[in-house]
Amino acid sequence: MQKDCLNVIRERRSVRDFLDKKIDPIIIRKLIEYGNYAPSAGNLQARDFVVVTTKKDELADAALGQKVIKDAPVVIVVCANIPRSSRKYGKRGTLYAIQDATAAVQNILLATHTLGLGACWVGAFDERRVSEILELPDGVIPIAMIAIGYPKTIPPNPGRIEVEKLIHWGKW
Ligand SMILES: Cc1cc2nc3c(=O)[nH]c(=O)nc-3n(C[C@H](O)[C@H](O)[C@H](O)COP(=O)(O)O)c2cc1C
Questions:
Q1: How many whole angstroms separate alpha carbon 152 and alpha carbon 68?
Q2: Per-residue pLDDT tens over the stretch 36-65
Q3: Which of 37, 52, 78, 119 registers the highest number of CB atoms within 10 A of its CB?
Q4: Cβ atoms within 10 A of the Cβ of 46, count?
Q5: Would you say residue 44 lies in a domain?
Q6: CA 63–ligand 1 middle distance (angstroms)
Q7: 141: CATH
Q8: Residue 112 structural domain
Q9: Cα-to-centroid distance, 120 and ligand 1 (Å)
């Protein structure tokens, strides 16, 4: 059953505990398609997606040994493709490519939750080591690893800062 968009945004949690159940590659492809529906600067889509199922132990080592990477049946490494954006936008293209990739990450997390899967955004990793493991070309930077699986347990909402403390109407 598909869920309402606002509920998906509210209910999505970082899932780190997965069932021992494989994910159909068709679903992974779909998640990436939804990732790439995210906006991008000049619609250049300066992002690439590396799907990892076999090198997870190496990736986990590059990510402070985080168990979530080993335990997830699939890890999608979302990368910023700097040359794809910089060709048009010069120096600013670096920032745009990072934003293009990051927007895709959030779409994938929401799509994952919508389809009844669970995922965790993993950002704590050694960028150079991950680039070596995945043999990324020059200018392609790993931005986030998304560990994905069928959820075994879903953690409680860790809460948010009261939004009134974050809003600055018109000026700081
Ligand atoms: C940039 C970024 C980096 C993150 N890195 C990690 C990480 O390395 N390991 C991890 O377990 N969770 C990581 N998270 C997930 C956060 O811990 C999580 O989103 C936060 O605690 C709020 O929980 P929620 O996603 O369930 O709302 C990261 C999230 C973001 C946005």
A1: 12
A2: 999 999 999 999 999 999 999 999 999 999
A3: 119
A4: 30
A5: yes
A6: 13
A7: 3.40.109.10
A8: 5-165
A9: 7
